[in-house]
Amino acid sequence: MSTNRTNQKFPTWPTILSTLIAGSDLDRDQAYWAMGEVMTGNASDAQVAGFLVALRCKGETVDELTGLVEAMIANARPLAIEGEHLDIVGTGGDRQNTVNISTMSSLVCAGAGALIVKHGNRASSSSSGSADVLEALGVRLDVPIERLSDVLDAAHITFCFANIFHPSMRNAAVPRRELGVPTAFNFMGPLTNPAEPTASAIGCSDLRMAPLMAGVLAARGVRALVFRGEDGLDELTTTADNKVWEVRDGKVVESLFDARELGMARVTLDDLRGGDAEHNAQVVRDVLDGVHGPVRDAVLLNAAAGLVAYDESAEGSLHDRLGAAVTRAAESIDSGAARLVLEKWIAATA
Known about the structure:
The structure is a single chain. The strands form 2 sheets. The protein has a 5-stranded mixed beta sheet, sandwiched between helices. The chain has a two-stranded parallel sheet with strand order 2-3. With 350 residues, it is α/β, with parallel strands linked by helices. It has 15 helices and 7 strands. The protein has helices at residues 13-21, 28-39, 45-58, 62-74, 101-111, 130-137, 148-155, 162-165, 173-179, 185-188, 209-220, 277-288, 294-310, 318-334, 337-348, and strands at 86-90, 116-120, 157-161, 199-203, 223-229, 242-248, 251-257. Belongs to the anthranilate phosphoribosyltransferase family. Anthranilate 2 binds at residue 176. Keywords: Amino-acid biosynthesis, Aromatic amino acid biosynthesis, Glycosyltransferase, Magnesium, Metal-binding, Transferase, Tryptophan biosynthesis.
């Protein structure tokens, strides 16, 4: 995905900021330059803050977000993974404190045969992020980068801890913390998996940003489902209707989806609420042990999204493909395959 940007005439911070303040868009290379300056520590806190606020106030574009993502990956620690692999992840930020649905869905997809390279971090707006719950389950997060491929071979799943792979993010930490408002960084995590997965299932709570994220993935030529619950959840949900952006062959197709069409009951947000890492870890164990209910349905639905994105074939309607994938996801749980993935993962990282 990286582009050769040598021998180009690079801009300056005054030109970048003036462009944004005037309400004009940056091109991809200008956005790449600006994020490169941030990631390498060449930008002052004032320049970082001014850039993020000006960009947010104007409104990000697909080209701008693509440039930012490319620069962030270029400054990340690399991870080479061969062949097809999938990430299931959400932006966070919906502030609904639900259980770790994408983490459970990742285990289910791995049990169904997909190779999962999950990118994640500790909680920022909830009580338990993916890293927190995995740690509580017994998965070690400090596995050396050179061993992550071995873990993937052993368990069909591995974890890219964002803190380890994106050390350059520290250069934006103070401005982001002191601003205290969402910026482009809040939406870049799911797009900056250092393994650059060939397929992604991404939940985005922000209605304006979700199609932009789909556009970035289309520009990168990956397969993906980007989705958002109409009640603001960054998941495919049984609590409301869902908006879905399917990315294939460089194109984005938007549709609406209601989980009741697959026979799943409409539930409330309280049915999906989580707690701290220990609480959510027990929920993971319960789901993998076959406990039925609203959480299982949500996990099946998001695992199905992952399997649809992972599948290189796109025959049939999205509804039909999700329905078939829900059946595969249920088999992964009920056969014990998903539970075995977790056990192998814990053993492989010990």
